[in-house]
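EI: anyone free to look at a 457-residue chain?
SC: sure, send it
EI:
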Amino acid sequence: IGKRTSESLCFFLIEVGKVEKTLEVLRQVLCEHSNFEPYAAFRRIDRRRHGLLHTDDIYTFLRENKLRHTTEDCEQLIRRYDLDKDDHLSFSEFLRIVLPLANKELRTETSRRKNYDIAVDEYLETDIETALARLLHREIIEEGRVEELRRTLCARPDYDLMGLFYLVDERRMGAIDFEVLKRFFAQHQMTMQVDDLVAILRRLDRNEDGSVDPIEFLYAVNPIDEEFQYKIFGEEESIIRRARRTEDPSDVRYMDYLDRTRVERGDRTVGRTTATGTPRKKGKGKKLAKAIGELLLVFKMIIRLEKELELVKEDLALQPDFNLIDAFRMIDVKNRGFVQPSAIQRELGRLGLSPSKEQVYLLVKRFNAVGDGRLLFVEFAEMIAPVSEEYYKKLTGRKARAVDFAGCAWDDIFEVGTLDSLRKAFCTHIENETAIEALRVRLAELKSLDLTAIFEQ
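SC: here you go
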């Protein structure tokens, strides 16, 4: 990633933060109306009583408030907040649009307001109706502006999604949090205010866990436009992203929200006003295509990480004084024929590295074939040796030293340059496993992902 692309990413993130701060003001203005209640607002837009908001619902609501947008604009708004990718907004997803994020007291107070229903031909109070329409209108305008910035960034000749992610997450922790983001801007001689950094993270953090994983980063940076998706992912994945699911007639989650808030207040006066019914079955083929698209994206990220690791392993294998047996014996100080995570963590510490127990556990788990929580020599060799047959033969053809390893330091056995390559190999392993685990967690959160169905396909 070149300097100009790195600077373009800085500019993009700064603008994303400005967008979030602008929208947060409008959220707070809306919620400061004492009669604003999220359920009533949701029902006002959901005229057809599906229990879900579709593109046409947003489009109609805005037109009724004399705000002109295309259906494509409204679809883009839904994509922004559609976490489960079913092409509509549930009540819980709608709450992410209207509830403030920077003012916890106002958010809590708004969430606890007494629910009230609204008839299909009724409107909200004029001030509330206007504030809600203005918020949605601004969301569409700002998201369109961000999309143009995405395209500009994507047009850079060295554009690479994972490269951009690791440009920010330089320590390969698999996530971007406040400190990582602050450090990224500092490297570009930019001192960012706390509220600006927080605003950027809020806009990028889709699951609200306080950090941005690679997939969340992709959604933030990757253009929605099909032309650009083709450029990045290839034709097969662009086609997958065009797949659409059939509609669900209802979503019981906002009914559950009503029950929960009524129990908290002891209020039994508001009844359920729409039938929840049994949802129609969604198009299995389209649903499966979308899930496969998610997996393809993750697989491409993993492949990139593995390629980077292979280059590091090959560099280590080229060090003439390095061999697998000596490296293993430096960790297996008791000559038991296996190494445990604690021993690996201890020796990494002696090499000047400081991984957490969890990171070492992930590394061991990756190569521990029998699942007993320790690595045999053959498993250790698989972890360190390159896949390339040429490099593998060079490495395994070297003889071990006939020395007593008790009390030896690493620099007693290997040269300085070799130790640097070994450190880099361990660091890359740990960084990759941390990043891949973040991807696994993200996939596990996708309710639409049916691995059995995908495997059978």
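EI: The first strand starts at residue 338 and ends at 339.
SC: 👍
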